[in-house]
User: What shape does this take?
Amino acid sequence: MPTIEVIIFLLVVLVVFSAIVERLKIPQSIMLVVAGLAIGFTPQLPDVALSPDTVFLIFLPPLLFTAALKLSWHDVKAEKGAIISLATGLVFFTTLAIAVVAHYFIPGFSWQLAFVLGAIISPPDAMAAMSVTKGLNLNRRVITILEGESLLNDASALVAYRYAIAGIVTGGFVFWKASLQFVWVAGGGLFIGLVIGWAVLWALRRIKDNTTLEVALTILTPYTAYLLAEHFHLSGVLAVVAAGLFMSFQAPEAFSYKTRIQTNNFWNTIEFLLNGFVFILIGMQLPVILTNIEKSSLAGAAGYGLLITGVAIFVRILWVFPGAYLPVALSKRGQRNARKIDWRYITIIAWTGMRGVVSLAAAMAIPLTLANGEAFPERNMILFITFFVIFFTLVVQGLSLPLLIRLLKISADDSRLREEELKVRKLLALQTVAFIDQELTKGETDDKVIRRLRNKYAARLKLAGGMAEQEQHGDANGVNSVIDIYTQYANLQKALLDFERALLVQMHKEDGASSTILKKLESELDIEETRLTAQLKRVS
Assistant: This one.
């Protein structure tokens, strides 16, 4: 079957199964991996081998970039201690723990091979973590820690992997050189990412009213950062993440409103498609991997896979709880700003350690032969164990996570965010009313226009105040009447928009006006309805 037909077929599978996921409330990643398994074991369907180059160049940069764009730099900065601890300390600790177990319990695994396996298994996957935790009403702080960890830990793991492979292929390894190299690779990758992010933003500020070109620049950004960093043997992963975080911080100034709307829509679509392809392809790899495993040793390989999975899960739990409490315990007595976290959320962080496509691609990137031409030892076993860990952590941990959240009685505590939102809304409305009174009245603008503008923002101020009262006192003081009036007003506006849109449709059918004009007016109605829908959602 030609490649284009395979891609179209997988697109159909992705769309169909994603629609099923919406109804069953199952994490998309799990359903798509299972779909990939079904495709892989169906004789009439094609075998698709996952190329490491495809993962590291085609899939990884845009997925890391869009995830970084959605993260708040301020949130990442606030949780930098936890994120760095998980993304570096835990990765190396997991690598070491898996290496020790593999060396002593899996026949044929030398220390070098054991460290290769540890480096491959150690990093939890960014796409898997975001897919599984989506829609689970987790605390924003927990999500920031999990996503920040999974964005940064690939660099630590891949550096360890690179040196473990080099040690086996060439037969040499110097610890202090590897340590210095890690600092150079990580720091250089971050620097290149910041430079690329700055250069792109510099260009965006000089492009006026060309949304298509602005969006095209954001598409090139992750690939440019990744390729440039890898060209100098630096961390392409950290370069992409740094560029994404930098642009996320500067986006309010750099992007026009049209660019922000189109960029968000574009990257949401890209994220959906690439994520879906990744998880389907993961599932499809098992038949390919099994062809190289003898049937007589399959049960033993599964046992080793279960052993390594258990080690990876246990080590994460062993690291996370002390890592959460020790900084608070060691802080100065009476320090009020020590960042404590509920033990239930620590439990969720400890349990959310799903592995994914980066681990599988790293395993598949193991060379077939050594420098002397001999076959790379235990390559097939490493591939099988890696797939086993990925599948087990995705399916078992992923499916059990919602149950764990219910057992721990966790609900999203958004009260602080709601209070902050209302505070910002009131501040905006107050400052705008003051600006109208102090600045706009000085001009020659008609008083009626000034009054209408002032009434609009005064109504926003009253609504924000009413919602704040409702948060504190329920329905006291007739607060509901303010919100009811606002809701009725917005719903009537939406009804008028529907009426206008119906008129445009009728004119389109009767060829009553130019299609260019009709599309322009339809776009204006769509933008206005988006604004009204967001407002109604806010007060509901």
In short: DSSP finds 20 helices and no strands in the chain. The first helix runs from residue 3 to 24. Confidence is low (pLDDT under 50) at residues 473-479.
